[in-house]
């Protein structure tokens, strides 16, 4: 199932009682919300392109790094993060099943109530 997003799109490849897998495409020059998850743990694997990932324990303590194809990282619950497309990028997200567990702190597309 393909889900359109203002920054690109995601494809839900598998959801079951134990895990979820998505393939995401981030358009160049776009970024997702600055966010964290209360329960969800996710592992990101870059398939193509360059993806800038910001991570930190809070908004004021973010560190950033550009990830390229073949690189991966795991984001634990509570870690503030955001992905930005340096170039159009494709990546896999394997996670626990709490797909709606998103706390947005900032959003370029006005998706914070």
Q: Which helices and strands appear, and what pairs or packs with what?
A:
Layout: E1 2-5, E2 8-15, E3 20-26, E4 34-36, E5 42-48, E6 50-56, E7 63-68, E8 72-75, E9 80-85, E10 89-95, E11 103-106
Antiparallel strand pairs: 1-2, 2-3, 3-10, 4-11, 5-8, 5-10, 6-7, 6-9
Describe the structure.
- The protein is an all-beta fold and 113 residues long.
- 0% of the residues lie in helices and 56% in strands.
- The protein has one domain: Jelly Rolls (Sandwich), CATH 2.60.120.10.
- The strands form three sheets. Strands 1-2-3-10-5-8 form a six-stranded antiparallel sheet, with no helix packed on it.
- The model has no long low-confidence stretch (mean pLDDT 97).
Features:
three-stranded antiparallel β-sheet, Jelly Rolls, six-stranded antiparallel β-sheet, 113 residues
- Name the strands of the widest sheet in spatial order: 1-2-3-10-5-8
- What overall form do the CA principal axes indicate? globular
Largest sheet: 6 strands, antiparallel
The number of distinct structural domains comes to 1
Number of DSSP strands? Answer: 11
Helix content: under 10%
Q: Summarize model confidence as the mean pLDDT.
A: 97
N-to-C order of helices and strands: EEEEEEEEEEE
List low-pLDDT spans: none
Q: CATH topology, anyone?
A: Jelly Rolls
């Amino acid at each position: 199932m393909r889900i359109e997003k203002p920054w690109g799109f995601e494809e839900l490849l598998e959801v079951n009682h134990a895990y979820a897998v998505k393939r995401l495409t981030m358009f160049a020059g776009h970024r997702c919300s600055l966010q964290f998850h209360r329960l969800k743990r996710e592992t990101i694997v870059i398939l193509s392109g360059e993806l800038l990932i910001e991570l930190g324990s809070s908004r004021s303590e973010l560190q950033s790094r550009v990830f390229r194809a073949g690189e991966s990282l795991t984001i634990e619950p509570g870690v503030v993060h955001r992905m930005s497309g340096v170039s159009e990028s494709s990546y896999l997200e394997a996670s626990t099943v709490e797909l709606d567990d998103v706390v947005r702190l900032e959003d370029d597309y006005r998706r914070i109530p």
